[in-house]
Amino acid sequence: MDDTQHDRRDRDPEGRARNARPRDGLGRPLPYGEPGVERQPEGVVRTGEDTVAEAQRLLDAGMPFHAHEVFEDAWKSGPEAERALWRPLAQLAVGLTHAARGNRSGGATLLRRGATGISEFHNARPYGIDLAHLASWAKELADRVVREEEPVQAAESAPRLRG
User: How confident is the model at residue 6 (pLDDT cuts 50, 70, 90)?
Assistant: First the structure.
């Protein structure tokens, strides 16, 4: 890539490459100038309780891509001991994102991967999250996504984290 191409890349305030195109509720880029959904700020440090509450709000609003970013923040900036919890939850949210976008294979794969990750917690309920119920939800949705040709509706298909 030459300097001309490099200079035209979108940059965040710290100078890192970051696409500034507006996004829809499922995180898909829209053309410049189109109204979009406000992006989730990156690197926000939240308590576990706040992470679950914010992710649930976004899931309920049909914005699983944004919920994935909330879980990703917890995974990357939270306590080391909790990373094994937040990563599969992020995978579930992005799996729902792909399923809602119509990417059946990618959605099913990520839903199953996330279900496997949280099943390692057995019957634990960190922050009140019903992980056993959530794993069942993810496996059932993955099966449905593979069977049905239409994308799922994100808000209607979103799980209750605290079942």
Answer: very low
Nearest-angstrom CA–CA distance, 17 and 120: 36
d(CA 133, CA 116): 13
The type of residue at 48 is G
N- to C-terminal Cα distance for the chain? 50
Alpha helix segments (H runs only) across 26-130: 48-60, 64-77, 83-101, 104-119
In this structure, what are the phi and psi dihedrals at residue 21, rounded to the nearest 5 degrees? -65, 145
Backbone angles phi, psi at 49, to 5 degrees: -60, -45
Say what the pTM is. 0.85
Per residue in 83-99, pLDDT (tens digit) is 999 999 999 999 999 99
